[in-house]
Amino acid sequence: MKKFAFFLSLMVVLFFLACSDNDHDETTGKPGEGPGVINLAVTSRVGTHVGDDLTAYVKSLDLLLFRENTNGIYLLRESVSFTKAQLEALAGGTTEVGAGFTEARNVNFDNLPIGNYIIVGVGNMRDSVGGALENAALSAINVGNTMQEIVASVTEGSTSPRIFFGMTDRIVLGSAMPVAPSLTLYRKVAMFALTLQNVPAAVDRIDVEVQNTYGAFNMTGNFLSDRVISVTQSNRYEFTEDQSTLPLALVTLPTVTGEQSAFTLLFYLDNGQVITIPLQNTYVLKANTITKLTATIDADQSGGVWNVRLTLSISADVEWNVDQEPNIII
Signal sequence: where (predicted)? Predict the structure, then answer.
């Protein structure tokens, strides 16, 4: 009788432990063993080139794995961080990428319980001279926190203007075979569009220098080691005698928090002379925003001194990123 009572008690304890473990896994997303495998392909949108390396733009990457609980809420199950060296060591993916996307890198998540998942990626950018910027704030990234609160803490933080960010669609994971979703990381970018009127025929080239941004990109989307953008790097702009109106557009990261961005135009003439003209006003380039200006060049001044008069200034908040190449009409 005592043996039967002990056996019954043991069964009850094991039953409650099993229920507790299952409920714990469903509500907190903490790790547990399972048959599921996710083979994730990671890429990022950087410009118009094909197959650039991810680490040319991203110096480190955090991947956050969320699992849906019985209430339909996605909770953080685990996170993994990669340094630049670790990213370079990842195997290249077989997923074909389009123009402007980096070569895919593969990351595997093994031993997962079946269920629904979403993976969020936060990539920390290199700065304009290749140095290490402060990483994105990940203070709310604790196992068991909801995806909503974690995403809000990252995308609304002071570091958000300079990160790559993205999330997968819902991943339905069973036990039969691995699933192979893709994760695309996007960055918040700004655009400065300047239309110059009365451009003298003697102008062979124009460079645009911008200050106090988190970095800049030339007209093909390449991340620059400085903040001088030459419009001759794009075949959009061919200077001819009848081109009196010239649209210039450059893609940058937003203006550094608390700063103003100043712009300087450098006109290279066919006689070798270089004329440098700073714009009178400074601007705050906001994420996903186009600042559009129109200016008239007055070259008929004594001493060869030119004047650039701003005649129109528009700032428009738009749903836009670098995959929409200039010129954008607003």
Answer: 1-18
Q: Among positive and negative, which fits the CA dihedral 296, 252, 262, 306?
A: negative
Query: What is the rounded distance in angstroms from the CA atom of residue 80 to the CA atom of residue 66?
Result: 12
CATH ID of 190-317, from 1.20.120, 2.40.10, 2.60.40, 2.30.240: 2.60.40
C-alpha 325/C-alpha 250 separation (Å) is: 10
Per-residue pLDDT tens over the stretch 202-252: 888 888 888 887 666 665 555 555 556 655 544 344 455 545 777 777 777
Single-letter residue type at 157: G
Contact 247, 327 (CB under 8 A): yes
Say if residues 239 and 203 touch (Cβ distance below 8 Å).
yes
Cβ pair 143, 72 in contact under 8 A: no
Instruction: Tell me if domain 28-187 and domain 190-317 are identical in fold.
Output: yes
Residues 148, 320: Cα–Cα separation, whole Å: 23
Query: Which residue stretches of the chain are H helix?
Result: 2-28, 84-89, 147-155
Do the Cβ atoms of 322 and 251 come closer than 8 Å?
yes
Beta partners for 42? 105, 183
**Residues 198, 204: Cα–Cα separation, whole Å:** 14
- C-alpha 116/C-alpha 108 separation (Å) is 16
Averaged pLDDT score across all residues of the chain: 74
First to last CA, the chain: 85
